[in-house]
DNA sequence: TCTTTGACGACTGTCGACAGTAGGGTGCGG
DNA sequence: CCGCACCCTACTGTCGACAGTCGTCAAAGA
């Protein structure tokens, strides 16, 4: 073995233009540079990214599957997914179900690494909130919740979480952009953490319902400010 | 209004080559003409379908997202997803969770149309089994279970079910091809139907667990015949 | 004035060709 | 005989150009 190992043993994530374009598109949407409802024109975007339309088209298809873009019909234009109260409700109800399943699956496998990951990411979230960094606090909150999904060791579940996470980010980012204040309150995850580390799975389930309900109410007040807040 | 209404009000589903290619690929995989693990070469497939590689590539991406195809890394070949016991377990555990959520959501909305749909599709399933038509019985069983997902009126849930359904079909089709006998037993859904129409949601939940457990055992005996059958 | 029809522009869907990469085989040096 | 560098082929990723479709708008007809 030569000194080659010194420069890293990862397979070197070779990026294709499609991947790069997908990342750039995601970033632009989540940062609000492409507002919800805005049209996405292939030729213009390709020119802006300095690539041809072929890889960009594949990237667009990817975001269509993720739900960040929508297309009414063939030959109809692609637009950034608009914010919608119904979708928001669906996001939180499905997420509550999936996260409960994740806890059930991971419950008996909670080890030192699990507890450490929860603590670390919660610290990172708190730090981001204290720093007033919206973008970082969104990512940190998602990373915190991601701990359980990863601990469940369930590939399909992780994939489902990924599909939800993208859209969730869209709503949170839009919300924070509109209100100009960092995401969750500093103590919003104290109970979550306590029960996640505790002995009572049913208590965790209840905490999840409360947590999701609170999150949904916050998003709904933003997406649908005219109507009274009511559980789905 | 002119006589235009006489020829139909549907938007006329215009198909692109991408959609057609995706359907053809799906059909070939599920029919076993493309066996699990078989390589998928763009140029050869495009020639076989009589189209260029561009729309075929987008169709391949679509099936990659659905899990019917897999790609190890960039520039690595795409192959048909191999059958895997772990994935099978994940399919059934996640499906049990989602279908329980679907019943919870739809429970208070079960109306005459719901009951009729259940009865109709169960009759279709029974007919397919009696006719010894494997392919039809697979589609019929999926359609029967689809009733609840549709009744829940939950777009994201429906999408998640679609993602699971594709892979499930892959496993069932391979199983039936290998054993040469039609799918579920004729009475396998009697309890399912009874509880789905009954008053007790908890009983339905229990029935779901049993139903999924039985289905998983059947698939596992096929995918992983060497090892003793044990719950996940 | 209102409806219909044709042309126009912008865009998406599709194509054939080019560039770059991974894996396998071959020949050389050790 | 074994290890290594090189080449060669098949394939994927990318490109620029062409064809088909949709929305718009102005002109013609009722």
Spell out the key features of this protein:
mainly alpha, Four Helix Bundle (Hemerythrin (Met), subunit A), 2 domains, Arc Repressor Mutant, subunit A, 65% helix, 232 residues, DNA-binding, 3% strand, three-stranded antiparallel beta sheet, homodimer
Write the layout of secondary structure elements.
Two copies of one chain form a homodimer.
Chain A: H1 17-30, E1 39-40, H2 42-49, H3 53-66, E2 69-71, E3 78-80, H4 85-106, H5 112-130, H6 134-151, H7 155-179, H8 190-197, H9 201-223
Antiparallel strand pairs in A: 1-3, 2-3
Helix pairs in contact in A: 1-3, 4-6, 4-7, 4-9, 5-6, 6-7, 8-9
Chain A binds a DNA duplex (30 and 30 nucleotides) through residues 14, 16-18, 41-43, 51-55, 57, 74-78.
What does the model show?
The structure is a homodimer of 232-residue chains. Chain A has 232 residues and is mostly helical. Chain A has two domains: 17-80, Winged helix-like DNA-binding domain superfamily/Winged helix DNA-binding domain (Arc Repressor Mutant, subunit A); 85-223, Four Helix Bundle (Hemerythrin (Met), subunit A) (Up-down Bundle). Chain A contains nine helices and three strands. Chain A has helices at residues 17-30, 42-49, 53-66, 85-106, 112-130, 134-151, 155-179, 190-197, 201-223, and strands at residues 39-40, 69-71, 78-80. Chain A has a three-stranded antiparallel beta sheet with strand order 1-3-2. In chain A, helix 6 runs antiparallel to helix 7 (155-179). The longest helix of chain A has 25 residues, at 155-179. Chain A is globular and about 55 Å long. The interface between A and B is medium-sized, with 32 and 32 residues.
